[in-house]
Specification:
The protein is an alpha/beta fold. The chain has 2 domains: 2-138, 3-Layer(aba) Sandwich (Rossmann fold), CATH 3.40.50.280; 149-416, TIM Barrel, CATH 3.20.20.70. Helix content is 37%, strand content 16%. The chain contains 16 helices and 14 strands. The chain has helices at 17-29, 45-53, 67-80, 91-95, 97-102, 114-121, 149-160, 201-215, 231-242, 264-270, 285-290, 297-309, 327-340, 357-361, 389-402, 413-416, and strands at 2-7, 34-39, 57-61, 85-89, 107-110, 128-130, 164-167, 170-171, 197-198, 219-222, 251-255, 273-281, 313-320, 344-349. Helix 1 packs across helix 6, helix 2 (45-53) crosses helix 3 (67-80) and helix 8 packs across helix 9.
Length: 422
């Protein structure tokens, strides 16, 4: 059997770690399966279609902005080969499986994809296939050779002068942010609360060491939205890394302010962490309560102060446009951003992607959105109850200009994705 995996095309390229895990897991159980891999930011549509038409299954991993491109590829593959089955997975498919089937895919996967893809390979033909939550103990390391990690490392090197790749430490999130598909709506799990699973520390350290040596890494980052989901695990990881051959290799992680204890940041710094990201989101107390993040100005300020005291470079993420946000709230966010005095700032406009609480709340009104033309950085439709979209864009430009010397890196779309496609 031949299975072609396709990572959707987006403005910014990132590693297809999820597909790397899928391929490794299926191969462990069905070693005769032959895999191909394509990534929309690097590979031509014609090559994807040609390979897909020769495959038994083409599995697309898509976020909402990449679905339209996948729909076109799926249709083109079906035109050439009627026997090829096309499957879509990811957050968008988990949130809107029926819509994905209506768009022409043969099957849609809800949830984590490893067991689901294995079941499909073995012959399951249900239109909607629900994957189960996976424990790290049953997952092999992702197949980085297949997903051509070297290409993504090359992008990082051109952008930063550093060879960087990513690792996953946890699955699931303990929080209920309304703007996040991992949050209140729990898109991957059909709204069910599923325990956050942390990876065995030594297994993670071992993989980092092997990959660092194989790809000559200068730096690595964690792709987890909440890397410190289990504070005890954080200390265990830091201790294990300090004892390892990669003790000095620097790294980055995203932190939730509520889960910080005083020894955490010094331990992370001693283990080589040099930069953290914190979701500040807003400086308004009502907005922080309304978005479901469970943080307060006090917990955010404390976390930033502790991190800077430990010598860490602190990056703060801000979201403009919570439904209840007013002009006064935006002014408070500006003052809070100044007060925090961060090393880096990122200002985005809330984008209610499928799978988030905000999308589920206004699903009918958002049904016509062309997700491939919008994201959290450019958004021409979202507004709060009292602040129009044009005004939110003005605020975004204002804050971006104010903190211009300390902005998170993000190049224009045309400079990030190599392929414009059709």
């Amino acid at each position: 059997m031949k299975v072609v995996l396709v990572h959707g095309r987006y403005a910014n390229s990132w590693e297809a770690l999820g597909l790397g895990y899928l391929a490794a897991y299926v191969h462990n159980h069905e070693p005769e399966v032959k895999f191909g891999f394509f990534q929309g930011c690097f590979d031509d549509d014609s090559d994807i279609i040609a390979a897909g038409a020769k495959a038994d299954i083409v599995a697309f991993s898509c976020t909402s902005p990449t679905v339209a491109h996948a729909v076109r590829l799926s249709a083109a593959i079906h035109e050439v080969s009627h026997r090829t089955r096309t499957v879509i997975g990811g957050y968008h498919a988990s949130a809107l499986p029926a819509e994905c089937l209506a768009a022409g895919f043969d099957q849609a996967v809800r949830g984590e994809g490893e067991q689901a893809l294995l079941d499909i390979v073995k012959g399951l033909r249900d239109p909607v296939v629900t994957g189960r939550p996976m424990d790290f103990e049953e997952l092999p390391w992702p197949n980085r050779r297949l997903i051509r990690t070297e290409r993504n490392i090359g992008v990082a090197y051109r952008e930063n002068g550093l060879r960087i790749t990513s690792f996953q430490a946890h699955r699931g999130c303990p929080f209920s942010c309304k703007f996040c598909a991992d949050g209140a709506a729990k898109a991957l799990y059909g709204g069910r609360v599923v325990a956050c699973r942390s990876r065995p520390v030594q297994d993670l350290v071992d993989e980092i060491a092997v990959v660092a040596r194989q790809y000559k890494l200068d730096f690595f980052k964690f792709c987890d939205p909440t890397w410190n989901a289990a504070p005890g695990w954080v200390h265990a990881f830091c201790a294990a890394k300090r004892r390892s051959a990669i003790a000095a290799l620097p790294w980055f992680a995203n932190i939730h302010a509520n889960l910080v204890d005083e020894p955490m940041f010094p331990a992370m710094y001693e283990a080589g962490c040099r930069t953290i990201g914190i979701g500040v989101e807003s400086g308004s107390i009502p907005v922080l309560k309304g978005i479901g993040k469970a943080t307060t100005r006090e917990t955010i300020s404390r976390a930033c102060l502790l991190a800077k005291g430990a010598g860490l470079h602190v990056r703060g993420y801000f979201i403009l446009g919570a439904p209840e946000e007013t002009e006064k709230d935006l002014e408070e966010t500006e003052r809070f951003a100044e007060h925090l005095d961060l090393d880096e700032y990122g200002f985005t406009i809330l984008c209610p992607y499928p799978g988030t609480f905000y999308h589920a709340q206004d699903r009918d009104a958002l049904g016509g959105i062309r997700w491939e033309e919008t994201d959290e950085y450019q958004n021409d439709f979202w507004a709060t109850r009292t602040v129009a979209n044009a005004r939110l864009q003005e605020w975004q430009r204002r804050l971006t200009a104010k903190f211009r010397g300390r902005l998170t890196q993000r190049q224009p779309r045309s400079e990030q994705c190599a392929k414009s496609g059709s």
